[in-house]
């Protein structure tokens, strides 16, 4: 049995990096860590794999990482860059011949049902659609042999699900951490934190703010994620304070 881990499937902002329609210097493109797919991670537990968000790059991300199984899905929120790959979950429904549990807030469940109505319609023989089965987000989830402590942070006016497993916390898409959540972030070994771009953003922590929050939380190592093309991996990372790093696609964090 492998050691449980969190695998960064996508470290990019909603556009992905490189962004369509933009030219980049060759040295930027030459660094693979500057190729950022849409924000997502995989929790690999002793009892299986949990996909956290299913954005438009989901299929490519799982192929790239050689992930053959996804037994359940957690949706943090329903912005397009976090759910538009859900249709491809049907491959796993077919593989296991059963619906895939999707952990999502009631608001997220309503959005997903509206956007993918056919995944919830009565099944028709021979028609291959994703079968999704909603599960409630409880403060503590026991999934795939992992204990996942969940909490909601503010993503502009939208709540976004964040979580902690052992000494690792994952906060994609956050512009404010409610005071009540801070105790859940004490004593972290690793924090994955939104830092979308250099300029302030109404719905995300930007670089300076993320550094401030990272210092306040005080994890041993903080990885900044949901990154735009403001970040040129080696150039930016050379300027970062001790304990702060940039996430990249394929980063593996032991749980
Ligand atoms: Zn978002």
Task: Briefly summarize what is shown.
This protein has 255 residues and is an alpha/beta fold.
CATH class category name: Alpha Beta
Query: Reading side by side through the largest sheet, how are the strands ordered?
Result: 6-5-4-3-2-1-14
Number of helices: 7
User: Could you give a short account of the major beta sheet?
Assistant: 7 strands, mixed
Instruction: State the CATH superfamily name.
Output: Ribonuclease Z/Hydroxyacylglutathione hydrolase-like
Derived structural class = alpha/beta
Q: Care to count the β-strands?
A: 14
Q: How many angstroms separate the termini?
A: 14 Å
What integer value in Å does the Rg equal?
18 Å
Report the portion of residues in β strands. 25-35%
Question: How many structural domains are formed by the residues?
Answer: 1
The residue-averaged pLDDT reads 96
Q: Please tell me the CATH architecture by its name.
A: 4-Layer Sandwich
| CATH topology grouping | Metallo-beta-lactamase, Chain A
Topology order in helix (H) and strand (E) letters: EHEEHEHHEHEEEEEEHEHEE
Named once each, the bound ligands are:
zinc ion
**Low-pLDDT segments:** none
What's the overall geometry?
globular
